[in-house]
Fold this protein.
Amino acid sequence: QEQLQQWGAGLLKPSETLSLTCDVNGVSFKDYFWSWIRQPPGKGLEWIGEINHTGFTNYNPSLKSRVTFSVDTSKNQFSLRLNSVTAADTAVYYCARAINQGDYDRIEFWGQGTLVTVSS
Amino acid sequence: SYVLTQPPSVSVAPGQTARITCGGNKIGSKSVHWYQQKVGQAPVMVVYDDADRPSGIPERFSGSNSGNTATLTITRVEAGDEADYYCQVWDSRSECVVFGGGTKLTVL
């Protein structure tokens, strides 16, 4: 059974770095792209970007300067780092499994989400 | 960047048909995917590639896509269908996943 289990710090101060990791079970890590999406409280979905097992990445242009993705293929895990956070980065962060075929991308399965709050 | 426009809300009585639209420039040339998000839960894909259903999604959920509008149709609406629905495409120009703003479906 497929599972995406994510974890990371839930409370940050402004200017700190957000760090989340997602553990993948039940599917082949090498066959998909691994995505991060966020959702501010009461608002819609915002795609942050994605990475595959080779380290190939796609980014939301609006966040690219502050985002780093990484993968650990030995553990079937992928991670997100977002630096210089502000209150505007307060959101539920989801990890997810995606299919990307160049001119095509869909998100097939989502993790449970982690609420990250940025407050002084 | 590419913009997807959804109505903020749609209301329908139980047993009726709900139609949720997603507008975008020449969206008919793209593959559109739809997600259902119930309160407090992660989104779930309900339609992909304009009109296909993932395993386990009822046949009541269907989609279409032509011109500048994609549509998610839910027939015989049930109370359990009440949720936010998001459309999504890939914008090849910016190499970016784009979501619509979401539509809240209320079952009266």
About this structure: The CA atoms of residues 78 and 101 of chain A lie 20 Å apart. The two ends of chain A are 40 Å apart (CA to CA). The mean pLDDT of chain A is 96.
